[in-house]
DNA sequence: GCCAACGTTGGC
DNA sequence: GCCAACGTTGGC
């Protein structure tokens, strides 16, 4: 089993939004970066776990934990002309972009701030802690996962 | 809110 | 295939 960090801007879709859904499950769509796409398509598997990360907000950080409940499939938003994520390069025969389904396991009582992650021993090499870390889908090592989870418990 | 860094696109 | 222009994201 692998661990991941998925970024979402809370103004677009927050962990509160996910928690408000009756089944606590959503399709993770709209990834439009090839490096992130490749990870989603080739490495993210059912039952992998991920940190739901709030980006581009005053309270940047880890908001909770989710589980992959469906591995990569063609991203429907890329095929939907009405969607802001529509991409004419993507067709049903040749879907360029993929989505996965994620289920909320736990929302942290408080967001674990990025600044705290950066100060924490053992997380120096965590991708999200690196300067200018822009990937929206990031791998997390098992060790980083354990260390970061401890921070969430306070 | 501005600017720098980075990835992507388009023109040649 | 290169490179300039552009859009997006992150850092301050």
Task: List its traits.
single chain, 154 residues, alpha+beta, 6-stranded mixed β-sheet, 5 helices, 32% strand, globular, DNA-binding
Write out the strand line-up for the largest beta sheet, numbering strands in chain order: 2-5-4-3-1-6
Distance between the termini: 25 Å
- Low-confidence stretches are none
> What structural class do helix, strand and pairing data support?
alpha+beta
What is the general shape? Answer: globular
N-to-C SSE string, H for helix and E for strand: EHEHEEHEHEH
The total beta strand count reads 6
Question: Main beta sheet: strand number and arrangement?
Answer: 6 strands, mixed
Q: Explain this structure to me?
A:
With 154 residues, the protein is an alpha+beta fold. 24% of the residues lie in helices and 32% in strands. The protein has five helices and six strands; from the N terminus they run βαβαββαβαβα. It has a six-stranded mixed β-sheet. A hairpin with a 6-residue loop joins strand 3 and strand 4 (61-74). It is globular, with a radius of gyration of 15 Å. The model has no long low-confidence stretch (mean pLDDT 94). The structure holds a DNA duplex (12 and 12 nucleotides).
Per-chain topology:
Layout: E1 3-8, H1 15-20, E2 25-28, H2 34-42, E3 49-54, E4 61-74, H3 76-79, E5 98-113, H4 114-119, E6 137-140, H5 142-153
Parallel strand pairs: 1-3
Antiparallel strand pairs: 1-6, 2-5, 3-4, 4-5
This protein binds a DNA duplex (12 and 12 nucleotides) through loops.
